[in-house]
Design brief:
By secondary structure, the protein is an alpha/beta fold. The chain has a domain of 168 residues: P-loop containing nucleotide triphosphate hydrolases (Rossmann fold). It contains 14 helices and eleven strands. It has a five-stranded parallel beta sheet. It has a two-stranded antiparallel sheet with strand order 3-4. Strand 6 and strand 7 form a beta hairpin. The N terminus is likely disordered.
């Protein structure tokens, strides 16, 4: 299983006990800065300016003191994410980076591919994330005999009305968990192409729109090969991130045993409270649009993608969709760091997760036992970092 630590010396991994990207990069001083407030915001608006007596130390995502903070009020984002982290950690232990990456994908309107060996909480993580959102949830277990109609729905003859009526399938939900996605053949996988990219289903001359939010969380096991199918590249490119899950550390495993030593039967998730709803997600996405990206950061993203297309060890590089994915996720990473501007650390943090499933090695690179992670590290180290 690939090691997906963040590349580069100045690319720390955000998490509970680790610094956030850009921790050591002070924000530019702004005399008109608006400090954060711990008081929950009534709405996602920049006009809710806290008074001087409401100024508090920055949250754990903050990268600068309150007096250096920018004018964009990011406290609604940080407050919600802090609450979401707290709810998720009621069940998930030692998965701070996983939770943060899943939140980034959710708020960036992107889909997630979770890959890992059996028993490391891939399905549980998806269920926990769905529980924190006030929305509909459905699960589809992919099997070799699954048909496209089992996913998107089919027409059923209504005897009373003497006409065919469309019956929506389980894909018509807000959070859709697809378990063991690589167990279904290409014909079934193709049923996901339209809905994952365009958020709609076309059936029998009619178009059905998905509600907000719509996110697919898929899991796959890289070890088992019998009865599995390689996902089409066109489908892999539709996942915003591929997150490679790893075993817990010894101390985390002890904590897992301690917390669930009295657990009998099915794990109870009823203690998880719903933090985000449709309006909240839309509000955060509106704030995300206001995160500033300098031209030199756009050039940096372009240089990374161009390097993947011209690298001698890569048969397939990143697409324009990959460039946009890096841009969106780096803006969300900056927002979680309490900044309204993107820095190179944000880009470097998300690049491995955005690109690792989009790149294809040449046969020669595979014979050398190279991994896409190693190629991404090499590219990031070879490029000049904008100042």
């Amino acid at each position: 299983m690939e090691d997906h630590n963040t590349p580069g010396e100045n690319m720390p991994t955000p998490g509970e006990n680790t610094p956030t990207p850009g921790k050591n990069t002070p924000a530019p001083e702004d005399t008109n800065a608006t400090p954060l407030s711990t008081t929950p915001a009534e709405s996602f608006s920049e006009s809710n300016e806290p008074s001087q007596d409401q100024m508090v130390p920055p949250t754990r995502y903050s990268s600068a003191p309150p007096q250096l903070r920018n004018t964009l009020d990011l406290s609604p984002v940080n407050n919600k994410i802090d609450l979401l982290f707290a709810e998720a950690k009621k069940i998930l232990i030692g998965q701070s980076e996983l939770i943060e990456l899943m939140v980034i994908c959710l708020l960036c309107d992107g889909h997630i591919l979770l890959e890992g060996v059996p028993g490391i909480a891939k399905t549980l993580s998806a269920n926990v994330m769905a529980k924190t959102i006030d929305s509909e949830f459905s699960r589809i277990q992919f099997t070799p005999d699954l048909m496209p109609a089992d996913i998107i729905g089919t027409s059923v003859f209504n005897m009373k009305e003497s006409e065919f009526v469309f019956k929506p399938g389980p894909i018509f939900s807000n959070v859709v968990l697809i378990d063991e996605i690589n167990r279904a053949p290409a014909k079934t996988q193709s049923a996901l192409f339209e809905v994952m990219e365009e958020k709609q289903i076309s059936f029998d001359g009619e178009t059905y729109q998905m509600d907000i939010p719509f996110i697919v969380i898929a899991t796959q096991n890289p070890i088992e090969q019998e009865g599995t199918y390689r996902l089409p590249e066109a489908q892999l490119d539709r996942f915003l991130m591929k997150i490679n899950m790893k075993y817990p550390t010894p101390s985390e495993e002890v904590e897992i045993l301690r917390r669930f030593k009295d657990q009998v039967g099915k794990l109870d998730l009823s203690s998880i409270n719903k933090i985000l709803d449709k309006e909240g997600i839309i509000g955060i996405r509106e704030i995300l649009k206001k995160i500033h990206v300098e031209d030199q950061m756009l050039q940096y993203i372009s240089d990374i993608i161009q390097e993947t297309r011209n690298h001698p060890k890569l048969y397939l590089g990143g697409s324009p969709r990959a460039s946009l994915a890096i841009l969106k996720t780096s803006k969300m990473t900056a927002a979680l760091a309490g900044r309204d501007f993107v820095i190179p650390d944000d880009i470097q943090y998300v690049v491995p997760h955005v690109l690792n499933h989009r790149l294809i090695l040449t046969p020669e690179a595979e014979m050398e036992s190279l991994s896409t992670k190693q190629i991404i590290d090499e590219i990031l180290k070879s490029l000049e970092v904008p100042r």
